[in-house]
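Predict structure. Chain length: 468.
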Amino acid sequence: MPADAIWLGLVVVAGLLLAVALVSRLLQTSPVSDALIALALGVAVGPLGLDLLHLGGDTLNHPNIRVVARLTLAVGVLAIALRLPLHRMDRHAIRSIAVTLAVGMPAMWLVTAGIVMLLLGVDPAGALLISAPLAPTDPVLASGIVSGPLAQRLIPERIRNLLLAESGVNDGLGLPFVGIALLLTYPAEGANLGTWAWHTLVLSVFGAAIGGSLIGYGSGHLVRLATSRNYVRRPGLLGFSLALTGLVAGAAAALNLSAILAAFFAGLGLNWALQEEHQEPQREAQETASRFLSLPVFLLLGTALPWDGWFSAGLPLLGAAILILLVRRVPAILAASWAIPSLHGLPDALFVGWFGPIGIAALYYGLHEASLGAGGLVYQLVTLAIVLSVVVHGLSGPALSRWYARATNQPGSEESADEAEAKVEADESRAKKRENRQAAETESERQTHAGRGTKRAPKRSTKGRAGS
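Prediction complete.
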């Protein structure tokens, strides 16, 4: 890429980030998401629009772009892990996440493969290869759907946590699906099934989960130790979770483990070990970094969309992408809803089934397959599905949240964004006061017990001297 294009790209990206930062509060309650703005801006400055940036598909196939996409996902999933209320999640919540993952991911993969075979005329192995990147849901887009005052007011915490946790875990679990598809498509070039299962399932997945959890948990205890001894101040901790993301993701990638899964479990370990007053600055810094890292990726995608490939593929490709969004997930969640404790009825199942957005995770795995020799159809379908998902899931978020609230008799279904935000802030303020009061009572009891111990000590020492 020429130097002029790099500087021009920097100007466009910086201007986008500044604009989004200035209207961030409005975007939280608007049907127009920041990802949609970034994507549209990429189209506007790309070859189809003003033709200011000439990037093309070759730029997206560059290894550095895959590294940026992987790092963006790692930052995003760690931000999700820090948001989960782990100490309040019971076995029903954990079971809900496990069942949703066990049913949802294979179903999304197989249903998508069936659609590809039916409409695009691809053989079974090729259809599985094309469909594998579309199995994970996107953590960045999922976080945008369940964030903000309206979502907090209208959507129960059990539903928000389920969508967040699922998107955080299944991004890392996308690797086995891609690996199976590659083995079926290129059997002569891949390892045998036993070798693949050992490396991908045991080492890459479980190794990343265990290693990430231990590093995150140990890092959290280091933060507590350093703050208890007054070694650090709050500004010094703002970038701690970001540094942890780079450490864990870099180490996992160097060891051929799942960097995304390692980052998510590192976030869970850090979340579990940190005290509440230390969690908030880490959560805010991580969510901000996730948002601002994802926007350049969507902008870059907008400049490199394969318009010629889309038009040459015609209506079958468009029909396949639309059908994938409609049926890849909803029927499976409806069928399994009886086994998911967090889903309490049909509106819950429909809401969770619909909001399985396709985003940067699909782009990363699609580019990974392309780097290993997959055909152009993978890139065409994946990018078209991402664009449709950004538009449809983003625009439907506020409206379907209000529908869900009315269908389940949730309070606040007719509130404005300002009213919802005011009530959320009031609830948070009351919760904070309650936590501070409980902490003060605990500290008072501790000081009382310590004072009693101090009073007893001279008596014991006096008796000892008398006895001697």
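Summary: Confidence is low (pLDDT under 50) at residues 459-468.
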